[in-house]
Amino acid sequence: MKIFVLTGPGYDDCRYEVPVEVDLIESGYQGSPRDLFTNRRLLTVNTRTGVKTIYGIELFYLLRGKMAAFASRASPHDLHDVQHLLRTYGEEVRGFVERLDPEAVSAFLDVVAPGSLPRWRGFFGR
Question: Where along the chain do its domains lie?
Answer without folding.
Answer: 2-123
